[in-house]
Amino acid sequence: MLSDLLDTLRLATFIYGRFEVGAPWGFRLPDEQSARIIVVVRGAARVEVAGSRRPLALSAGDLALLPHGGAHTLRDAEGSELHLLGDNECRQISAAEPVRFGSDGTQTTLIIAAFRFRATHRTQSIQRLARAIHIPAGDSATSPSLTSAMQMLATESATRAPGSAVIVNRLADILLVQAIRAFIAGSGCPEHGLRSLADSRIGKAMALIHERPAEPWTVESLGAAVALSRSGFAARFSELVGETPLEYLAQWRMTKAAQLLRDTDLSIGEVAERVGYQSEASFNRAFKRLERVTPGAYRRGGDADQRGAAAL
Fold it and tell me: What is the average per-residue pLDDT within 171-177?
């Protein structure tokens, strides 16, 4: 279910670069609405998170997930002068050429990836994530596959082998899912969104909505499917997810509709049916209410949206 959620919401993955820097060093990531992952291959980094008073202290083997974007600053220590990144310095990963700057002090290697989401459909589960999620090396919630993916990312980002850029992007996707999975398994989850996925009954209800969005779900039928009373299910779902079951259902239907309009050649009527609308007119009204454009206008603008994502 987590993979389905992220795959449907994500427009593009792109790599800022592999940074090999010597202390003192510092730089600021662009102020963009993109989730980011920072992997420390060696050395250490101080991450000053936009919207947060407390910086993250990262060591070798650590991973930080910054779900909400913003102009984050990375330094070796507080007050280090910032290097102004040029346009090309955020895209050299494709040529396997690291970005190098700083001085002759302690060397640090970082890999930074970003993920652009469809902002209109950032569900409450995503919106309620912490501003920064720190997964230290050796954390008990960290799976061996997360550690392996980080090691492979470090290796592939340093090679000139054919296809390495494609592999790096795929590994970044894996790290995104693994990082959120580790967060759900860890102690931070109860205070933030996505804890619903750790609840067996509410997680199952969300999975049913994702798997069968065309089903004529009601609060009662969803509750019955997970062996909860209507009132008990509604209260538990709202508490964990941050919205009512029917609000989540309506939003997910439009999220899937947008993906189908963007990625398939299905007619608008077929898309409407796939997400639970027997009437194309009612689907058009529901879609426009959320997206502020008709399904047809959204489809015509979809290619431009994808090109914009790919160009980041």
Answer: 88
Its domain, for residue 110, covers 2-191
Phi-psi category of 69—alpha, beta or left, where left has phi over 0 and alpha has psi -120 to 50? left
**Distance, CA of 167 to CA of 9 (rounded, Å):** 21
Together in a domain, 68 and 166: yes
| Model pLDDT, residue 195 | 65
User: Which pTM does this prediction carry?
Assistant: 0.75
Check: CB of residue 176 under 8 Å from CB of residue 35: yes
Q: What is the CATH number of the domain that holds 247?
A: 1.10.10.60
Does the bond joining 24 to the residue before it have cis omega, within 30 degrees of 0? Answer: yes
**Least confident residue range of 49-58, 189-198, 228-237:** 189-198
Is there a single domain that holds both residue 36 and residue 163?
yes
Give the residue, 169 or 275, on which the prediction is more confident. Answer: 275
